From TrEMBL:
The lineage of its organism: Bacteria, Pseudomonadati, Pseudomonadota, Betaproteobacteria, Neisseriales. It comes from Chitinibacter bivalviorum. Pfam families: MS_channel_2nd. InterPro entries: LSM_dom_sf, MscS_beta-dom_sf, MscS_channel_2nd. This is Mechanosensitive ion channel family protein. Residues 108-178 form the Mechanosensitive ion channel MscS domain. GO terms for cellular component: membrane.
């Protein structure tokens, strides 16, 4: 005999039938199972002492996304019959639903694009839509990065946390600075008057570049060898190079290119510019 009032059975007949009761019980057990296993695995990852904080954070983000997919997939399997019935009854308004959820669908497509192309992952340093920073979180709808350096000459280091929807990945390029390791080619720009001793300027810039590279020459050599073997690339030129541009009729533009460690571009650039300013007044 049912314990529920007859009037409630008449109003909600589908809520008291045996298949629905079975689905509700299965859903509750499934959710409890996911919560318990997530807590246990999360605790196990946090207590690992042989993993760095970066690896732990990457594991936790990956596990969270896996559990979200399992949660949605499990409920869809449990309530498959009811969902199928509901889908058939909602065919007439399917177009309206697509329009209403357009941005969410684009975000999910952007997530699929990011995952399938391996554009970036947690811990990578990227430049995206005039923002530079380190990726600290990714999920189905968005990704988060800490703004760690400037993307233009007028904007300094700000350290903000920025959350960006995945839908923007479908229409904007991503520059991954860590895709090929822990070094990146950096360009230092300098303009001098046309009547300046350009050969002396070039000599000073090359000297400053060589002094900067000398501080991490051993790590750079190992990095070049590893990248040549792993990525099947030609050997990267690690010598500083100077390019000269005469587009401006009143000045000579110098571009010093050299490899620098990630996260130290501003430091190396400031060191080179200060080296130039110390020598420039006495030599030019």
């Amino acid at each position: 005999m049912s314990l529920m009032p007859s009037w409630l059975v008449d109003i909600f007949p589908s809520a008291v039938d045996k298949p629905t009761q079975h689905d509700v019980l299965a859903s509750l057990l499934f959710i409890v199972f996911l919560i318990v296993t997530r807590m246990l695995v999360k605790r196990a990852v946090i207590q690992r002492t042989d993993l760095s904080l970066e690896v732990k954070r990457r594991w936790l983000v990956t596990l969270r996304n896996i559990w979200f997919v399992l949660f949605v997939s499990g409920l869809m399997m449990i309530w498959g019959r009811e969902l199928q019935t509901l889908a058939v009854s909602m065919v007439a308004i399917a177009a309206a639903i697509v329009l209403a959820t357009k941005e969410m669908i684009l975000c999910m497509m952007g997530s699929i694009y990011r995952t399938s192309t391996h554009a970036f992952s947690v811990g990578d340093r990227i430049e995206f839509n005039k923002l530079k920073g380190q990726v600290i979180d990714t999920n189905v709808l968005s990704f988060t990065l800490t703004e760690s350096s400037y993307a233009s000459a007028q904007q300094g280091t700000v350290g903000r946390v920025v959350t960006i929807p995945n839908s923007l990945l479908l229409g904007n390029p991503v520059f991954n600075e860590t895709r090929l390791g822990q070094f990146v080619m950096h360009t230092v720009h300098l303009h001098v008057p046309r009547d300046a001793d350009w050969q002396r300027v070039e000599e000073i810039l090359l000297q400053a570049g060589n002094e900067a590279i000398a501080g991490y020459a051993d790590e750079l050599s190992v990095h070049v060898l590893e990248q040549a073997q792993q990525q099947v690339l030609n050997s990267i030129n690690v010598e500083p190079r100077v390019r000269i541009d005469l587009e401006d009729i009143d000045a000579i533009a110098f571009q010093l290119q050299l490899p620098v460690p990630l996260g130290q571009r501003a430091k190396v650039e400031q060191s080179i510019l200060r080296h130039y300013l110390r020598i420039c007044p006495q030599s030019l």
